[in-house]
């Protein structure tokens, strides 16, 4: 585990670094003596490895809170990790070439494992520095005990020790960051899959608690789904600008539209602000209960979005239910329009258009011929004559409620299906 012994700038993330080529040099007799001193002390440390491991674990518990918690959670595994790392480190001092690859694999595995467990990287690097300091102090102490006159020779191998330290600090940091990126990608992908299943209506009941945790939304609550297309503001996550401030929402980005799963909380007046990004088309579903019903809400939001004009706007489904009925079943809408408006096709196109405009205006004026006449710039009797002509051509009676409902739906279908 720990190989570092002195503070250094943390290495930048990247793949596991390849061994750095070194320029061969001819060691002097002093270097040879220094290596002899180093190896002699390292063999003693290797023989006393369990005691050295106990010392490092104790130091970690005392000086690093994150490792204190790790020891409390699994003391045996932590001790074994420390033991393996120290053994590889000291073995590398004795046989740099033979033990190098195994030591690198050990450090990489520790970095990756601790990233998966959520141990902070700073704590991990601190542990490596503590371990490196402990090993170096052990080398100095052992040499001072058995051959004090040789302590000065350790200076000549210090650069080799620090190079080793730097290499393994880079390894553990790179392994940690690479694993952290992989974990983040997996989490993001899982969240996206859970949100997609909710919106598609294919989420399993057993997955709802996990989806609630991942999305940061309650499993049981009132929701609407907002579908947004066009005019997405640059720099905004999803289509956040289409919602009122403070609204709790999870955005799911799509190809043709973004969908927001919006929690409707008590006191919320509206999830959609009056001002929208230029060109944005927004469809808002009716409310549903619980995340399990989000799939139905998404379908309703898409229906509302289909009713939005191309130049932009917001359509709340609950305010356009007749149009939504037609849009959700275009085949039936077309059949209804043909049945109620088809007879007008026998007229000249201009005459048919006049009758249709008059009929639509009269309905928009709540059946008032007087108001419709003002809008159409004609006499009230002209409006009434056109309405009677429609009744004669179609056999429908505008005074009969069922016929009146069908005429309104037929005009809506004509507008939606033949814009």
From TrEMBL:
Region Disordered: start-end pairs: 1-24
Pfam families associated with the record: HTH_30, RsbRD_N
Biased composition range(s): Pro residues: 10-21
Start and end residues of each PucR C-terminal helix-turn-helix domain: 355-413
Molecular function via GO: heme binding; oxygen binding
InterPro entries for this protein: CdaR-like_regulators, Globin/Proto, PucR_C-HTH_dom, PucR_C-HTH_sf, RsbRD_N_dom
Domain of life: Bacteria
Residue intervals of the RsbT co-antagonist protein RsbRD N-terminal domain: 50-190
PANTHER family: CARBOHYDRATE DIACID REGULATOR, DNA-BINDING TRANSCRIPTIONAL ACTIVATOR ADER
Name of the protein described by the UniProt record: PucR family transcriptional regulator
